[in-house]
Structures are given as C-alpha cells and as structure tokens.
Design goal:
Helix content: under 10%
CATH class: Mainly Beta
Number of domains: 1
Largest sheet: 6 strands, antiparallel
Length: 93
Amino acid sequence: MSNPVNESGTPTNLSASAAVFSGPCRLLGIWVSSASSTPTIKVWNNTSAAGGVIANTFTPLPGTFYPLPFACSTGIFVTISGTVDCTVSFIPG
C-alpha cells in the first residue's frame, strides 16, 4: 500500500504552546513566520507536552518551512518558547 503525496493540509496558527489536533493525523510541517528572543519549537505525538516526541527541541528561523512528514496516533501538541509565530499543517485521520 502506498501513501499519496499531500502538499497541503489544515493550517493552525500558533504563537504559544498548544494542542493542535486530538486524534490520529498526519503532520506535514511547520511554517515559521517570525521567531526571536531565543525561540524554540518541540512537537509531540500527544494532546499535551508528554509522551512521544515527534521532533525534539529545535531553533526555528523566520521565513522557513520545516517539513515534518510524520504519522501521529494520538494528536499533535507543539511547545513554543521565546517569541514564535508559526503555522502547523496537518491532515486529520
């Protein structure tokens, strides 16, 4: 069985740590609009900042899209520190 290539998904804009989606889904990536004040992002396969880490802490650069083509069984939670404005793209299901 092959997986289709998806180039677009449901967008959720964040500027603070938050649950993005609850339930099975596919993460596509994160677009970072702006980042300053020692910014970091961490992505979890969960509805809170606990459990399975999808992408461990990284320092985002403004104007950058980070492809993160991962399946999530529980949901997506994003931890943000510093000042970050980003959009998470995912596909429910």
